């Protein structure tokens, strides 16, 4: 009679994993990939608590919170979307790149779409779902490359930097560091309230940890801030750490019930913005992390189509599950630095996000003072794109500047993108470079201009 030996089963499984993910060719092994996956997870675990805070509009006041998504359900949706996205990227594209609901995309969803445009979150989820479907179609066609080539590099970098400023501005508001002012629009707060002081403490800790290049600095900064809040009595200690998985049904599948409300000018702009940001954010992250991992061959990314397809599937799934668009995470670079080279790194991240489902009680200690430092530091990281813009050429610097500036000033990512895309053909043509403009950019400029003139509602 054959006896199952645990050691043999384990060895068989490890060998099968090694063959599928091609460990020998990549010069890696099971232990290294596992450590890399844990490293990446710790670097991006903050999204489990920041995303529910953003989408619930919990820090924007009682009236705004009434318009936001249910926080505990979003926690579950965030973990499920991150797990699905990371597993698909690891198993299908076999890259050490994890996915989760994206910072910037969630801010656009909550503050621009729901709070700014007055579109309810259920319809916004439907927009996320449809943008994912369009992304899937583009990933399967040659149109993908044409779109990537159509948008000037300066505008791509400007969008990333503008989103960074927008997120940081939200973080400063949530921390109580800046306040609205009737005369000045915004001003520095007195910085004397206990909650604001706690947020400043958390920001200082996170900045120090980031400067020391400590892995999972943002997550550890949140832990330090929450701990300080508990010690000082500003945050109530939860009764337990591990609990039941929160019910996701209040947000799951809701997108399918609102598809008939997408055929409006506002929603078409929303879907286009979601698609644009997700598409270029993913492409940039994939190339950046893959280059660090040494996976680029002849300046091309092998299986790039699969990677973008995996990203598109994740965004589609996130809309169905009940959260904002999922995208590839630049924090994956921390796992690559720890030795991750294969898709098994992303698989480990996906499994860890599933295990994290049982830690929802920690949501109680993640207040706006705890999440604000994370938003501000993520904004700093995203503004690194500014160095990629050629500021010596005014014809490209001006539209990039308009894009970056107008996102926080209009409190809208979509508006910043639209205005930048309108200015770009104008300055390029004036500089005698009209032939350098892709025809698609002319079309987009006309569409956005028409939207502002004829369709955009007042206020």
Automatic annotation (TrEMBL):
Where does the sequence pass through the membrane? 35-54, 74-93, 100-119, 125-143, 155-176, 196-212, 219-242, 262-287, 342-363, 370-389, 409-427, 439-458
Q: Write down the membrane topology.
A: Multi-pass membrane protein
Q: Does the keyword Nucleotide-binding apply?
A: no
Q: Where in the cell is it found?
A: Cell membrane
One example GO MF annotation: purine nucleobase transmembrane transporter activity
Which terms are listed as keywords in the entry? Answer: Cell membrane, Membrane, Transmembrane, Transmembrane helix, Transport
UniProt lists the family membership as follows: Belongs to the nucleobase:cation symporter-2 (NCS2) (TC 2.A.40) family. Azg-like subfamily.
Protein name, as recorded: Guanine permease
């Amino acid at each position: 009679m054959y006896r199952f030996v645990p050691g043999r089963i384990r060895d068989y499984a490890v060998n099968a994993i090694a063959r599928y993910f091609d460990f020998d060719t990549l010069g890696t092994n099971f232990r290294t990939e596992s450590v890399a996956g844990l490293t990446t997870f710790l670097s991006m675990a903050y999204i489990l608590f920041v995303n529910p805070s953003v989408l619930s509009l919990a820090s924007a006041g009682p009236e705004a919170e009434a318009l936001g998504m249910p926080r505990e359900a979003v926690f579950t949706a965030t973990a499920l979307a991150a797990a699905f996205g990371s597993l698909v990227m690891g198993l299908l594209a076999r890259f050490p790149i994890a996915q989760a609901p994206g910072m910037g995309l969630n801010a656009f969803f909550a503050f621009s779409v729901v709070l700014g445009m007055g579109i309810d979150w259920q319809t916004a989820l439907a927009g996320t779902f449809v943008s994912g479907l369009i992304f899937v179609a583009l990933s399967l066609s040659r149109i993908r490359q044409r779109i990537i080539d159509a948008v000037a590099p300066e505008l791509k970098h400007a969008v990333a930097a503008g989103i960074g400023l927008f997120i940081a501005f939200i973080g400063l508001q949530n921390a109580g560091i800046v306040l609205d002012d009737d005369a000045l629009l915004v001003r520095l707060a007195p910085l004397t309230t206990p909650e604001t002081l706690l947020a400043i403490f958390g920001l200082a800790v996170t900045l120090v940890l980031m400067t020391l290049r400590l892995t999972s600095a943002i997550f550890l900064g949140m832990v330090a801030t929450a701990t300080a809040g508990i010690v000082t009595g500003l945050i109530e200690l939860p009764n337990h750490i591990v609990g039941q998985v929160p019910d996701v049904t209040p947000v799951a599948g809701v997108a399918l019930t609102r598809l008939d409300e997408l055929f409006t000018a506002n929603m078409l702009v929303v879907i286009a913005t979601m698609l644009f940001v997700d598409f270029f954010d993913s492409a940039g992250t994939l190339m950046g992390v893959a280059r660090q991992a040494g996976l680029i061959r002849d300046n091309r990314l092998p299986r790039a189509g699969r990677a973008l397809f995996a990203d598109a599937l994740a965004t589609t799934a996130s809309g169905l599950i009940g959260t904002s668009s999922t995208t590839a995470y630049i924090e994956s670079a921390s796992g690559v630095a720890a030795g991750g080279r294969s898709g098994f790194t992303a698989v480990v991240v996906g499994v860890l996000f599933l295990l994290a489902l049982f830690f929802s009680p920690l949501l109680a200690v993640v207040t706006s003072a705890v999440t604000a430092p994370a938003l501000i530091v993520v904004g700093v990281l995203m503004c690194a794109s500014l160095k990629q813009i050629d500021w010596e050429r005014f014809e490209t610097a001006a539209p990039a500047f308009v894009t970056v500036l107008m996102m926080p000033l209009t409190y809208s990512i979509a508006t910043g993108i639209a205005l930048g895309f309108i200015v770009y053909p104008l300055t390029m043509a004036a500089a005698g470079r009209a032939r350098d403009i892709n025809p698609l950019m002319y079309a987009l400029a006309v569409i956005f201009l028409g939207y502002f003139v004829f369709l955009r509602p007042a206020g």
